[in-house]
């Protein structure tokens, strides 16, 4: 498989080069030259395939011959060694729980897959690889956890000061070793902008072999399509589901669209957004305008200019009519998010996190018009990551899993950074 740049000003490369580079040298995102079709045999045997084997069969065409089969099988097995349960919430709606990995959010799968691929590739490199990543909350922890102690790889994480939850902050600042956390006095878009600028700075890219671990990186983005296959494995209804995806940078939704393009049955997608709804507005109106991010309760979705939007357009050849036929956009306020967490706990005993609540509400609204259909929403984080929001609404404390307890006792280690590129540049050039 070759990957081309969506800006078309850089040569196509294989999976290895795309993973190491993160972003194409012209600043574009890499995109696969063809979309593999799931074979009829794969789709027929889907319900009985073990998770790891399904992961291998789906990822193989994207990886090509850049990783030997046995090595890729090991990487896949390590990546998906925890469950992805579909849990009924109402008669019509189920949660696909993606928070059973080590950092309690869905980004573990992409981060684990990417770290292991990069670990394999860096064994053939003489120079260290530096992963430079901006996080709105959960990416940082997943990337730090996935890369901790990986030989030949250093990780530099930029996160917006005061805009991530205490558990999230600890997950990316407490590990140490090859992980450095830069605490930016700004918002996520500032962090993302700084990272993008570093990738186009020749002085930096000749000093360090830089790569990104945001869903910009194909090795982070592509394995996320597995969630939708695991959901289908457990889906109890004959009709395919309506799937609501709580979205920020749109990597997760875009991976679902890719699985659908490969042949996975999905009835309809819902792009569930908080107040940062540039893509939802595009779906409604046909015109797109990036805007500055605003802070909300679902902080991992506070993205004003989502990177993967260009991939979404590419998948549909930029045709708004086709895109909006398959995907609806929804905007959910903080007030509705709170009310949804409270109501769903009281009526159904299900504990939502703010991101899942946005998706569940968007799905409920859609299904009101489609009472015969059934839906899934992606519950992307464990509610314990957002206790200050969830606990007062449900009137109880949420137990911290033991692994998180231990982490919370570790000291926070971060370096403050003004949201100016010169500061980041200086930091990187001195490494
Ligand atoms: C990152 C994140 C999202 C948004 O996912 P994208 O792929 O960026 O759209 C949603 N929920 C949680 C909990 C996240 O960490």
From TrEMBL:
Residues 2-79 form the Threonine synthase N-terminal domain. Its EC number is 4.2.3.1. The modification N6-(pyridoxal phosphate)lysine is found at residue 107. It catalyses: O-phospho-L-homoserine + H2O = L-threonine + phosphate. The keyword ATP-binding does not apply. Coiled coil: none annotated. Its cofactor is pyridoxal 5'-phosphate. Residues 96-368 form the Tryptophan synthase beta chain-like PALP domain. Signal peptide: none annotated. Pathway: Amino-acid biosynthesis; L-threonine biosynthesis; L-threonine from L-aspartate: step 5/5. InterPro entries: Ser/Thr_deHydtase_PyrdxlP-BS, Thr_synth_N, Thr_synth_N_sf, Thr_synthase-like, Threonine_Synthase, TrpB-like_PALP, TrpB-like_PALP_sf. One of its GO terms (biological process) is threonine biosynthetic process. GO terms for molecular function: pyridoxal phosphate binding; threonine synthase activity. Keywords: Amino-acid biosynthesis, Lyase, Pyridoxal phosphate, Threonine biosynthesis. Belongs to the threonine synthase family. This is Threonine synthase. It comes from Hymenobacter aquaticus. The gene is thrC.
């Amino acid at each position: 498989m070759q990957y081309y740049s969506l800006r078309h000003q850089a040569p196509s490369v294989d999976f290895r080069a795309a993973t190491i580079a993160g972003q194409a040298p012209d600043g574009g995102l890499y995109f696969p030259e063809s979309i593999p079709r799931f074979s009829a045999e794969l789709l027929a045997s889907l319900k009985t395939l073990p998770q790891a084997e399904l992961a291998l069969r789906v990822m193989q065409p994207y990886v090509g011959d850049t990783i030997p089969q046995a090595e890729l099988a090991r990487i896949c097995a390590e990546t998906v060694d925890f469950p992805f349960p579909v849990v009924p919430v109402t008669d019509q709606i189920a949660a696909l729980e993606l928070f059973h990995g080590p950092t309690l959010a869905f980004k573990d799968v992409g981060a684990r897959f990417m770290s292991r691929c990069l670990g394999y590739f860096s064994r053939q490199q003489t120079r260290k690889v530096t992963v430079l990543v901006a996080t709105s909350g959960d990416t940082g922890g997943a990337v730090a956890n996935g890369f901790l102690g990986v030989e030949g790889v250093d990780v530099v994480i930029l996160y917006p000061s005061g805009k991530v939850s205490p558990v999230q902050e600890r997950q990316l600042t407490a590990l140490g070793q090859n992980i450095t956390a830069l605490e930016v006095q700004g918002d996520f878009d500032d962090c993302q902008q700084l990272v993008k600028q570093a990738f186009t700075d020749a002085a930096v890219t000749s000093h360090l072999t830089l790569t990104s671990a945001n869903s910009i990186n194909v090795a982070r983005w592509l394995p996320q399509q597995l969630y939708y296959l695991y959901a289908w494995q457990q889906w109890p209804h004959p009709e395919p589901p309506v799937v609501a995806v709580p979205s920020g940078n749109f990597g997760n939704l875009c991976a679902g669209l890719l699985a659908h393009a490969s042949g996975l049955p999905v009835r309809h997608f819902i792009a569930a957004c908080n107040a940062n709804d540039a893509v939802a507005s595009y779906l409604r109106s046909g015109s797109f305008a990036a805007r500055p991010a605003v802070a909300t309760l679902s902080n991992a979705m506070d993205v004003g200019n989502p990177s993967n939007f260009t991939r979404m357009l590419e998948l549909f050849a930029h045709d708004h009519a086709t895109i909006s036929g398959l995907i609806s956009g929804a905007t959910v306020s903080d007030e509705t998010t709170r009310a949804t967490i409270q109501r769903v706990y009281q009526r159904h005993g299900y504990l939502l996190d703010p991101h899942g609540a946005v998706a569940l509400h968007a799905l409920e609204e859609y299904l009101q018009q489609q009472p015969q259909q059934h839906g899934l929403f992606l519950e992307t984080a464990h509610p314990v990551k957002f206790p200050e929001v969830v606990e007062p609404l449900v009137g109880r404390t949420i137990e911290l899993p033991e692994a998180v307890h231990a982490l919370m006792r570790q000291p926070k280690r971060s370096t403050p950074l003004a949201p100016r590129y010169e500061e980041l540049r200086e930091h990187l050039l001195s490494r």
